[in-house]
Design brief:
alpha+beta, Rossmann fold, 3 domains, six-stranded mixed sheet, five-stranded mixed sheet, 16 strands, 27% strand, DUF2066 domain-containing protein
Length: 368
């Protein structure tokens, strides 16, 4: 019997000062709200801000820029009142904002009805190794930095729903990684130093400020030691006008990659999957597992079909494919696949491929 359960920390986009050795992935909250700057409390400014707020919330929940061009989404942006939950004014550092909240279920229904991708709450956690060079000094940005670039990464990652953290740059980090490793994109030492952080991916980046321009470059890599190669998953290099633009473009590019891998659109097909959990010893585990599946963007519905001894089998009706489900489950720190359930045929994620007619899926252990 499991007497001590692993207490998994739940991360949100607004809490970016994360501990270095807790769980991978992050559960992003506040996907149905946003802050929009306004010039006044006039009705005209209010209506404009609500429309902008809906656009930002749609982007956070879909991740796809194409979603805001869809006719049904554009219609709601012109008249968002049916999706609006509440709004109110806030002053932050002397600047006026309208905080707008929308009905999350209606936002998701809008995306599903339009057959647009939905990016769920469980999202990859990204470790950022960044060197900033402003002509006066070069430095690796650490988690406790008060530089403008660190604050920008926090605010932009929050607004886009992309959880990030920075290295603490203590003695261990400084022994393994230096400025030249990051600027030169030497993957091996950075990948080694990243292993202590339970992030899913890491970014190697630099930003050089010279006069009125900023040159940035970045590359994204998987953190898993078995997957990391010298070839990045995505990368970009560009000269822009300011730090704000550079940070926005880095986070946007990372977000686009994740959306392509983790955001799920309705396939229109009647697909299902069977998932078995073993070592179930408490009723609350069953409740937690069902709650977990219900919030997954790949799952339409969940049903407990068999409970035998300490084993529980669930049938999942899917929006996407079996592989979509496996990728999302791999992000959840409370879910562990049992090695003995891995068969000969496997996906790139290390999971076995099940024929549509096969009802015996892989076995997992819930660490809730």
């Amino acid at each position: 019997m499991l007497k001590n359960l692993l207490n998994s920390s739940i991360f949100c986009a607004s809490c970016l000062l994360l501990q270095a050795n807790l769980v991978s992935a992050a559960e992003v909250h506040q996907l149905d709200e946003t802050l929009v700057p306004v010039e006044s409390r006039s009705l005209v400014q209010q209506k404009k801000a609500i429309s902008i707020g809906l656009r930002e919330v749609i982007l956070k929940n879909s991740g796809s820029k194409a979603s805001i061009a869809h006719p049904s989404v554009k219609a709601k942006m012109r008249n968002p009142s049916s999706l609006l939950s509440q709004f109110g004014y806030q002053e932050v550092d002397g600047e006026l904002f309208l905080q707008v909240n929308f009905d999350h279920q209606r936002i998701i229904k809008l995306l599903r009805d339009a057959h647009l991708p939905v990016w769920g709450k469980q999202r990859p956690l990204t470790l950022i190794w960044l060197v900033e060079d402003d002509a006066e000094s070069k430095q690796i940005i650490n988690d406790g930095s008060v530089l403008d670039s660190r604050k920008l990464f926090q605010s932009v990652s929050e607004s886009k729903g992309v959880p990030v953290l920075f290295p603490v740059m203590d003695l261990d980090d400084n022994m393994k990684v230096n400025i030249h490793d990051i600027r030169g994109k030497f993957v091996e030492p950075v990948a080694s130093a990243s292993q202590r952080y339970q992030a899913d991916y890491f970014v190697i980046a630099s930003m050089d400020t010279r006069g009125d321009s900023v040159k940035y470059n970045f590359a994204l890599y998987p953190k898993s030691s078995g997957e990391t190669t010298s070839t990045p998953l995505t990368s970009k290099s560009k000269v822009v006008h300011d730090l704000d633009t550079a940070v926005h473009e880095i986070i946007s590019a990372v977000s686009e990659f994740y959306v392509g891998r983790y955001a799920i659109a309705d396939s229109g097909s009647a697909l299902d999957s069977y998932v078995t959990f073993i070592d179930i010893t408490e009723l609350k585990q069953l409740v937690e597992i069902e709650k977990y599946f219900k919030q997954l963007s790949a799952v339409k519905s969940v049903q407990l079909t068999q409970l035998q001894g300490t084993s529980a089998k669930y049938k999942l009706d899917l929006f996407g494919t079996e592989n979509d489900l496996r990728r999302l489950m791999k992000l959840e720190p409370r879910v562990r696949v049992i090695d003995s359930a891995i068969h000969e045929a496997q996906t790139d994620d290390g999971f076995d491929v099940l024929p549509d007619t096969q009802v015996q899926g892989p076995e997992y252990r819930w660490r809730g």
